[in-house]
Design goal:
Blueprint (H helix, E strand, L loop, with lengths): L13 H8 L3 H38 L2
Length: 64
């Protein structure tokens, strides 16, 4: 039987690495959450930048 850890929401490699560094489970979870939030923010910003670029291109083509 496999013992499932309640903190296994991040990438599988992250937890052994974190444990080896000496981080505890709570901190590991917090760091993963922070990475996830940062990842989403970066994605949102790049999507917004792409949308703005597209809008400017359309306006330019429309002759505004």
């Amino acid at each position: 039987k496999k013992r499932r850890m309640h903190w296994s929401r991040g990438p599988a490699w992250w937890y052994p690495v974190w444990a080896a560094i000496g981080g505890d489970q709570g901190e590991g979870e917090a760091v993963m959450t922070a990475y996830r939030i940062i990842g989403r923010a970066v994605l949102a910003v790049s999507c917004a930048a792409g949308a703005i670029q597209l809008a400017l291109t359309i306006l330019e083509l429309a002759g505004w």
